[in-house]
Amino acid sequence: MNYTLGINKLTSIYDYDEFLQLSEKTIKELETVELEETEKNLLEYRKINLVRSLRIAKTYKPEKNLLLLFQKIKRKQIWLIFTEDWCGDSAQNLPYLMKYIEQIPQIDAKIILREDNVAALKNYFGADAPLSIPKIVAFTPDGKELFRWGPRPQKANELVKKLKSESLEREELNKKLHLWYSRNKGKELEKEFTEILSKITS
Fold first, then answer.
1. 3-state DSSP percent of the chain in helix, strand and coil, to 5
2. Residues 1-40 as b or e (16 or more Cβ within 10 Å = b)
3. The pLDDT of residue 53
4. Rounded percentage of the chain residues whose pLDDT exceeds 70
5. Rounded to a whole number, what is the distance in angstroms from the first to the last CA of the chain?
């Protein structure tokens, strides 16, 4: 797929710091208005996710071998990262990746708000693809696709599938999933991106 076929149609594009600032601004604004129950729940997710993201960014030390693989990237890459600030999987994964990306000027990482870019997400991942986020698709500037990833590490996907088969309520499922994330501390994500980067930098 050619990167240039879809980039001009994207809206709501941010770098990661801008995305966090937007989340903080949105939270403050929503706290001043009366909300429906669904919106109240999303506001709570936003608050929790912002805390998670900032905590990971503050405490996480990048794994040396993976950092060396990131440093092997010598030519520019564009990473489109579709997400939303209410997404728990994003808050549990993106802060780890950003710790690597922020040290690699060759990677132009663009945070794309899903709700404003559903057509683009379907364009890159297929019309029938689930809209679950975060999703990442990476390209060279001339349009060569490098890899796709998302919405969570495979081990976490397997856990979600198992929990759904047990017909757990969404709240209980999310609780168990985030417990897995807190115990794993980004290790499965590191493993998957070690494999991805080993392929594209070899």
1. 60, 15, 30
2. eebeebbeebeeebebeebbeebeebbeebeeeeeeeeee
3. 97
4. 96
5. 21
Residue 39 CA to residue 28 CA, distance in Å, equals 14
Residues in the chain: 202
Return d(Cα 41, Cα 184) in angstroms, integer. Answer: 26
What tokens appear for 201 in the block?
């930098």
Domains recognised in the chain with CATH numbers: 4-152 (3.40.30.10)
pLDDT digits (tens, 9 = 90+) for 122-146: 988 888 889 999 999 999 988 899 9
37-40: long-range contacts, CB 8 A cutoff, minimum separation 24: none
User: Rounded CA gap, 55 and 146, in Å?
Assistant: 30
pTM for this one?
0.94
Give the distance, in angstroms, between the CA of residue 201 and the centroid of all CA atoms in the same chain: 22
Element holding 195 (H helix, E strand): helix 187-201
Residue of 1, 15, 65 whose CA lies nearest to 201? 65
Strand positions, DSSP E, the chain: 13-14, 77-83, 107-113, 135-139, 145-149
